[in-house]
Design a protein that fits this description.
The complex is a heterodimer. Helix content of chain A is 68%, strand content 1%. In chain A, helix 4 packs antiparallel against helix 12. Chain A starts with a helix and ends in a 13-residue tail after the last helix. The longest helix of chain B has 42 residues. Classes of the chains: A mainly alpha, B mainly alpha. Chains A and B meet through helix 1, helix 2, helix 4, helix 5 and helix 6 of A and helix 3, helix 4, helix 6, helix 7 and helix 8 of B.
């Protein structure tokens, strides 16, 4: 039961902070605070300030009012990037959640070989997104890839060259990389469910499916919220995978917000508009985190955002 | 108490108690079983393909069945990758990872200790809220100002340029996890050590640190994996090929040798090998490390 969601409030009430404590421990927190402010908080404020300037990444920074924002908000590229970001988020959630749940419940069972499966499942999570993207790019190549080599027509399509296929490939690769991780979260969640609940249900004659929907699923509520938060907020940061796999293409079919920011800023040398996109990215991330926190039942989930 | 609590993630990975076996045997989960084995195939096939292809000669690659093991395995591809300055990129990755993880975990531990033991003081509380807020923000979005700061500090194209933001990005989650575990250390232990006249520094490193060692290892492993695999910071903060880390080198290598699939895959194997070796040695720690807290 004690996901981060429940373990944080447990320690925060003043009850645990009774007397006999050092009053002068602030200095211990200072190094972490200084580094985090310098490379976390100041950049966060900086990105907002930079969105009101014009800067090519090399020369001087000129204040330019709302010019960057006007440019970004009137560009049809923005709604498209938002839409692609949303699609990647929704589809990767929709594919990963049922599969992770199914695999997690399965892995929580007792047979020994399941432990072996878990070991293999975990390998994709150790690879860098760049390595995974490089591999799939080679594997799916219409001329040199696996499909072409096997001579199977169905497999030798131009996977990364057609808009719909490319988006599907991104979703598949994301799932390939992260389903094992979420399965392990669910496996841990399932093992926290008291056996006695199942035994009672069996006495009442409940079948496997009934038990899943009446016991497993409701008991996993917080695990589902934690896992979904990680998936949804994490999907905003699929930059390296998409950058290496499709570079946003074909055309702009897989150009998510993070990629749009990078391309405008570091390839188009328009740091002002890129900063405006970054601000939108931050706002989308915060809005999603708050929304999921609401779904989680209010204040008791202050920290489900971990790992974002 | 502290030990049982801190070992919780490992217990989750250990085999479940005997009592479940009977129930599981009576009701087989066919759907889950099918999905489990199917997923195993989906995970293994690309990995198998990477390994066997990396051992094939480029000239043979197009002629043979891509899923058949190589007739005459060759290490030529690996030689080619190693000759492309692999050792330097490897060393860069080691320096950046170690240089970021060690200070990040150290200062996060100090901050977590202060937050847990520092009483209800307003300052430490706001520090804690600040770190919690950092968890909700996609830190990639701050990359443009980070780039600006690095240029102004004249650190562009140095390994330090990647190390500093990596430390900052690792702090929020590290502090959160470590604080949760320090909270589980019985207060009586702190108090009795204070009675014996130990200073804060001694209590921190002699008591809190050893008692929360599993959490420290967990956080270290998690951060090291993230930083080792990091792509965005090296992409944006370096230009000089001699400062590349492995993921960036991998990407460049594919750009150069895209037609030489076996060589590209050999580079994938080589960049991943160090982590796989660590995985083989400390599998349980790594597994619990990556999922700790989420299903603790």
């Amino acid at each position: 039961m004690s996901t981060f969601a429940t373990s944080v409030p447990r320690g925060t009430p003043p009850a645990t902070t009774r007397g006999g404590r050092d009053r002068s421990l602030a200095w211990l927190a200072a190094p972490a605070l200084i580094v985090f402010v310098a490379f976390g908080v100041i950049p966060l404020i900086g990105v907002l300030l930079l969105s009101f300037t014009t800067w090519d990444g090399i020369g001087t920074i000129q204040p330019s009012g709302f010019a960057s924002w006007r440019a970004v908000l009137t560009d049809p590229g923005l709604p498209h990037a938002l839409w692609v970001t949303f699609l990647v988020m929704a589809l990767s959630w929709g594919v990963q959640t049922p599969l992770s749940l199914l695999l997690g419940v399965f892995l929580a069972g007792a047979q020994r070989y399941r432990g072996v499966l878990a070991v293999v499942y975990f390998v994709p999570l150790l690879l860098s997104s760049a390595a995974i993207a490089v591999t799939y790019k080679a594997l799916l190549d219409p001329n040199f890839g696996l499909g072409a080599g096997l001579g199977i027509e169905l497999l030798s399509q131009d996977w990364l060259g057609e808009s719909h296929l490319a988006l599907g490939v991104v979703i598949f690769v994301v799932s390939w990389q992260f389903i094992p991780f979420h399965s392990l979260i669910y496996q841990g969640g399932v093992r926290q469910i008291p056996r006695s609940m199942y035994e009672a249900a069996e006495l009442d004659g409940a079948g496997r499916i009934r038990k899943f929907f009446s016991i497993t699923l409701p008991q996993l509520k917080y695990t589902i919220i934690t896992s979904s938060t990680l998936m949804v907020v994490g999907s905003l940061t699929f930059f390296d995978l998409i950058f290496v796999l499709t570079a946003g293409g074909p055309g702009d079919a897989t150009r998510v917000l993070a990629l749009d920011m990078y391309k405008r800023g570091f390839q188009g040398n328009l740091m002002g508009p890129a900063s405006a996109i970054a601000v939108i990215l931050v706002l989308v991330g915060l809005a999603l985190a708050l929304l999921l926190r609401r779904l989680g039942g209010g204040g008791d989930s202050a920290s489900q955002l971990d790992g974002a | 108490m502290a030990t049982t609590l801190t070992e919780a993630p490992e217990q989750a990975a250990a085999p479940p108690p005997q009592s479940r076996r009977g129930v599981a045997a009576r009701h087989r989960n066919w759907l889950g079983g099918a999905a489990g084995w199917l997923w195993l195939v989906i995970v293994i096939v690309p990995i198998y393909w990477i390994v066997i292809t990396s051992l094939k000669a480029q000239s043979n690659y197009y002629a043979t069945n891509p899923l058949a093991p190589p007739g005459e395995p060759t290490l030529d591809n690996y030689v080619l990758v190693i000759q492309s300055d692999f050792a330097r990129y490897f060393l860069n990755s080691v320096i950046v990872t170690a240089g970021a993880v060690v200070p990040a975990v150290t200062i996060s531990f100090m901050a977590a200790f202060a937050i847990v033991r520092g009483g209800s003081g307003g300052f430490l509380r706001s520090v804690n809220s600040l770190f919690l807020m950092g968890l909700a923000i996609p830190l990639q979005a701050t990359i443009i100002p980070v780039y600006l700061i690095i240029i102004r500090l004249h650190l562009y194209d140095t390994l330090l340029a990647m190390i500093l933001p990596s430390i900052a990005f690792a702090i929020p989650l590290s502090v959160l996890v470590l604080a949760n575990f320090i909270r589980d250390v019985p207060k009586e232990l702190f108090e009795s050590m204070r009675m014996d006249g130990a200073g804060t520094w001694t209590v921190l490193w002699r008591l809190a640190f050893p008692l929360t060692r599993p959490a420290v290892v967990t956080v270290t492993v998690y951060n090291a994996l993230h930083i080792w695999n990091g792509f965005l910071l090296p992409l944006i903060l370096t230009q000089d090929p001699s400062k590349r880390t492995l993921p960036l080198a991998l990407w460049n290598f594919q750009g150069e040798y895209s037609v030489n699939v076996p060589a590209v895959l050999a580079s994938v194997v080589l960049t991943t090998l160090p982590i796989l070796i660590l995985y083989a040695i400390g599998r349980r720690q790594l597994l619990s490390g990556l999922t700790a807290g989420f299903s603790k």
